[in-house]
Design a protein that fits this description.
Blueprint: H1 4-16, H2 18-31, H3 36-43, H4 47-54, H5 61-70, E1 99-101, H6 119-127, E2 133-136, E3 146-153, E4 165-172, E5 175-179, E6 182-186, E7 191-195, E8 200-204, E9 212-219
Antiparallel strand pairs: 1-2, 2-3, 3-9, 4-7, 4-9, 5-6, 5-8
Helix pairs in contact: 3-4, 3-5
Length: 221
Amino acid sequence: MQSPSAAGLRALVDDLGPVIVGQRLRRARVRQSLSIRDVAAKAGLSKTSVVKLESGTPVRLTTILRVCEALGLHSGRLEDLGDEREDVAAVHHRADDRWRDMADIGGGFLLGADRPLSPTEREEAVLGGASLPVCIVRSRLSGGRVLPSILELHAPSEVRSHPGEEFVYVLSGRAQIEVSGRVHTLEEGESITFWSAAPHRYLPGASDEPPARLLSVRVDG
């Protein structure tokens, strides 16, 4: 027979659901700057068990208890770590569009406008000195690793290099993606994935073509 504490934990897990439980434990781990390897070692579990737990896969109660102990959390605190039921998904609407210059992300919004910009306004910003308009999509989960953005290629970007992976899909027009010195030409509907630590940059098509629009999805390393 389960002890009252185990029965209580089972009821709590059933109420929250494995996705919310995993998400809350992952956030607790990240706040403590612990890796999955660290938690697995402290809990006496395999890394696979911790990954399954954090990804929302149903696991044994003992796995949850051991991870809580490794994080210095009483299992009952899972209930008051914050109600994140709505945070299992993040949505970006057109009204959320905010455009910046990739060459100066921290320099504020294009044209100083804290609102969506029309294509004409984005072109005006480029004529005024902006190099590559970028709209950082807000549909990023809190603590998540996926960073999507929309790029509009009016001119070549600077060479970039950062940890992780990047997926680029051409929404419209034609673009060239240079990765480690090799140029890949992509038409509308085509895509490329690359290790983003490799030096890379985005190049527009021919000068008489409309600026290409790209969906860039970066996965942080």
